[in-house]
Write a structure and sequence with these properties.
By secondary structure, the chain is mainly alpha-helical. 64% of the residues lie in helices and 0% in strands.
Length: 107
């Protein structure tokens, strides 16, 4: 199967943001979450802050949706990045499962 043409830098950053937002907002089921985590493991992040957030999410123990923001903020601070802005991930409109699947394919 042919891979889609490379997306622009801005499109890649938007895809990274939406995928991480889905993880942060806990709006996806365990199967989709696992697919996102697996795909991002091999992804070369365009936005450095998003790579930090991804690494923090992977290292974090599972948390209730109400606890994720606080735990994530502590985790990125422990990684040495206390100024990472998490607002965009928690205020984003949740993506549909179909949109998330398309975003995973676009990376």
């Amino acid at each position: 199967m042919d891979r889609p043409a490379r997306t622009s830098r801005d499109e890649q950053i938007e895809a990274e943001r939406k995928l991480l937002a889905a993880l942060c907002q806990a709006t996806v089921n365990a199967q989709i979450r696992a697919k996102i985590l697996q795909r991002l493991q091999a992804h070369a992040f365009v936005e450095p802050d998003y790579e930090v957030i991804y690494r923090a999410l992977v290292a974090m123990p599972e948390a209730e949706s109400g606890e994720i923001r606080e735990r994530l903020a502590r985790a990125v601070t422990r990684l040495g990045f206390p100024d990472v802005d998490l607002d965009a991930l928690f205020s984003a409109i949740p993506s549909s499962s179909a949109e998330l699947a398309a975003l995973l394919e676009s990376l």
